[in-house]
Amino acid sequence: MRVTDYLQVIIYCLALISLTPPLGLYMARVFEGKKTFMSPVLGWLEALLYRLCGVNQNEEMDWKVYTKALFYFNLLGFIFLFVLQLVQKFLPLNPAHLPNVAWDCAFNTAASFMTNTNWQSYSGETTMSYLTQMLGLTVQNFLSAATGITVLLALIRGLIS
Predict the structure, then answer these.
(1) Residue 86 pLDDT > 90
(2) Where are the domains of the chain?
(3) What is the pTM of this model?
(4) What phi and psi values does residue 123 have, to the nearest 5 degrees?
């Protein structure tokens, strides 16, 4: 390795160490439902999403309601990704004119990305269109990880109370 490589690793570690405390404090405030510096900027969007989903943000969910909401959220993500793969041939951002994904491969992919296992039995560049990769796989990667974090937070809240 060259000196610049070591310097890059050192700068990265210093940035990571210096950003950890403020990011941790911010995340703790968000998870506790307290106001943050982003509340005035994105608070209206959060309230709109709550209203559209029929969620009362001032009402606590018991474990049954939370489990049902989590189930339906993941089910919608699964169905969206599954259908997206089944019709990708007809959608834009498919310059290679890739065919639709076979139903069994689409089911397996949607299930694995929904559960954050991301098991792939195909070669992405020769099976999935750009739209399917961007709108389906990438979004589901984010959502499955976010779902995992919310489950962990719900578990922690349950243990604390």
Answers:
(1) yes
(2) 1-59, 60-161
(3) 0.81
(4) -95, 115
